[in-house]
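--- STAGE predict ---
source: upstream dedup step, 1 unique chain passed
mode: sequence only
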Amino acid sequence: MQNLLIRLEKIQESLLHADAQHASFLETLHPYWRTSAANLIHYLKLRSFDLREIQDKLSEMSISSLAHCEGYTYRNLENVIHLLHKFFGSKPYITQNPEDYPSYRESKFLLKDHTQNLFGTRWVNDTRYTMVTLPTEASKDGALVRSLIESGMNIARINTGHDNPDIWLRMVENIKTSAQGLDRSCKIYFDLHGPKIRVSALRTESGRKAQFVQIKKDDLICLHTKKLKKKHLPKKCKGIMMEWPEILEVLQPYNEIWFDDGKIGGLVREVHDDYIIAKVTHTSKKGKKLKLEKGINFPDTRLKIPALTMEDRSHLPFIVKHADMVGYSFVKTPDDIHLLHEALRELGKSDLGIILKIETASAFDNLPKLLLTSMRNPIVGVMVARGDLAVEVGFERISEVQEELLWICEAAHVPVIWATQVLENLAKTGTATRAEITDAAMSVRAECVMLNKGPHILDALKTLRNIMARMDDHFEKKKGMLRALGIAKNYFQHPGLN
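--- STAGE serialize ---
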């Protein structure tokens, strides 16, 4: 047990050393974020150690462990060390300026403050925010927008990948009019389209243009970025056209290609100047229809495409005029953050809320750097975009990855939006699956949950809020709140065994 104390004090020293290493960097951040940035650095340093044996020994001694230290890492570690010193009757090291490190209560306040600064004031009895993607009809149907706000939408999402500024403006007007009429707050979120790689044209094996092609396992596909004439299309290949010719320059044999959120997958076999040939290795038994505008992912290829496209730049003047926050799609590196910060400064809107959409393997790998770089801006959040992210990191890893994202964002006191396919079957068909109800229940560990559009979106929104209200009493982030269980109380009211 004495060895346990020695190990923990060495970890404590490493956290203080990380402080010293980052002191000058922390001064470059917005003052609002410096305490949170320091805590994130402490958490990252702590999690660079394998703590499993330490955790087990602390639990054996009935001493509060490090399992819930995300928001107040240094103070939690210090508290554990102090308890061990009391156990051994020795004198602990006294940290200089302990007020520089957030306590448990201070960490809760910081996250709550950052969340309200981004998403606005919560409604009475609300502990979570709900975001809804508006359909095109919301530009014409003010009653629909009013019903969404009445049913619990407190953030309206407008996707610049669809429609146009005239339609977006009518959506904005309907949001503001409805919110004012109901005397409720509803923030406006605009998604930058980003360099989303989509299917722009399709050809059958005979070279005929098509709205969709049926893709089966072992099919050959020709992926190209130029309008290849029928005679140039390789034989026995289905033609798939996309934008972004830069992609062909970096693809290599055996690189993976995935279509339509992972429903179709293949491997590159041949690389040519104007096209590549890939063989389909993954799809359902009967095959899948690939339609126009479906997304394409290259999970093991490092694409050299800037996150802020020219199209996004053209939309920014409109966005900064009407939005409370902007979603940064396909952000990957700190350089991407600098591009958006600079563009917002030029437009005189450096204080616009920025949501980092984590939807690529690169973004996940670089998450700490992305967060720390973003903290030069006063308002920051993260969206866990689980659709593209699952394709990028692999479906087997997505559960693990989304957990790590939640932990790291909690350490940074950064609010999180849980997105993609939440109650999607319910929103689209009117019937929920058991799996998506369970998924929605897990979403309460984020500060905000996003629903996508669908004909039954009002039912989905009401169901989500009902689930969140039930689960809020059980969980705060990943920590169980130990609310009294009805099943336990019922047992002791009627304890007899048959």
